[in-house]
Amino acid sequence: MRVLALDGIDPGGLAILREAGLEITAGGKMNEEELKEAIRDVEALLVRSGTRVTAAAINAAQKLKIIGRAGVGTDNIDVAAATERGIVVVNAPEGNTIAAAEHTMAMMLALARNIPQASATLKQGIWEKKKYLGVELRGKTLGIIGLGKIGREVARRARGMEMKVMAYDPYVDQQQAAHLEVELAPLEQVLAQADFITVHLPLTKETQHLLDREKLRLLKTGARVLNVARGGIIDEAALYEALKEGHLAGAALDVFEEEPLKASPLLEMDNVIVTPHLGASTEEAQVAVAVEVARDVVRCLQGEPVLNAVNIPIVKGHLAEVLHPFSQLAEKLGGFLAQLMESPIIAAEICYQGELARYDLAPLTSSFLKGLLRPLLADAVNYVNAPVVAKKRGIRIREKKSQEMEYFANLISVKVEGRRENHRLAGTVNQDGEPRLVNLDGYSIDASPAGHLLVVPHLDRPRIIGPVALVIGDHQVNIATMQVGRQEIGGAAVMLMSIDSEVPWPALQAIRQVEGVLDVRYIYL
User: Fold this and answer.
1) pTM beyond 0.85, yes or no
2) 444: burial class by Cβ within 10 Å (0-12, 13-18, 19+)?
């Protein structure tokens, strides 16, 4: 298998790929046209921040399975286009965490003590001592916007400098913050009380210009602002105004709205410190992110689960062991219902009940949708693009959870609707970790969702099961197991057979002719 590694991926990462027997083509930054040609016949692409992996480049790839970003941010990769094509996108979220946190602290100290300005002046032969009076970090309040991996490491270091740390992050609870000795507060409160503000967020539609003119005005007079995350989170024009008017005492920026930065009024200000996107630029970090992403590329190409995908839900550690059999069950439920339906599916509902409902179950929903769509689309759908494909086909998806249960410790119930019909199916995982079907359209059953299956809705009366079995036998198909579910004597019922081979079309037609048989469906899982 071939791998294209661009932007100077560290040799440590390339060594991981070579050890796995992959063929590597390494190079520097590529423009779109160069990438479209180079990417055509490779299974994996690795980049840093230099090469932009556009939708056009992704669509030119014929074999691409995975795109690896040796770093945290993926804003130079069209993740939506990759997802639609079923291509996994992975990053290295932990490899440069310490480097970015340490660079943040370095920028904060430099900003507090005017170190770059004093150094430049002294190199010009000017001894300026009084001009560069600084401030101490001890006792000051640091406001952290985004308490993720890097934000947490910054908090730990700031506490070591005897700073008070406040943070805004709607996805972090009070218990986690208390463990870090951090006070969680609304964004406006953090801005109003902070002496230093640092942002540690990805750049999204929601975070673009998060610190705009209005938010910067909430900062106290004399506050200092840092950005070692992503350019664009701070409105640079508004920041320039706040600095020029003297509302802010200074700013330290490692990232910018346009990179490489060539011209900006911020460069003309003495109280602004800048570095050329050096947050992850340490020897150790470059090795770590390259190795981290290379290992995920190898996992993907060897058919193993990746650890750091950004466009599919990932489950790690003990939870992965817990959810794995339920993921298999969810996919089987989807595949069963897809083959049971005659009319196009317009809506699907999946309900998780029991202890299972305590967890984030997006991976199971993706598995269900993959199973639901795969009989129709084959290899065009996978765990990555299943939710996107369902949405593009106009299928409404609803997910429900409930921890209340009566008969099973855990249960997954699914319903699909078409224009002329709907079906329900429920399953669980037994004590041996095996998926089982336990209910079909309201009828209690107990069957393994595997192999060749025959579903025969019928009326609950004598001389139906025998004739159906005779038809199957006449076509040289052996029955492994059979059971019947009914709700009342003489009413509607369902026969579910596990058989050893495919049932030919003439046999299905003959079964339909048996008096009392309402329908028949052959299903293969």
Assistant:
1) no
2) middle
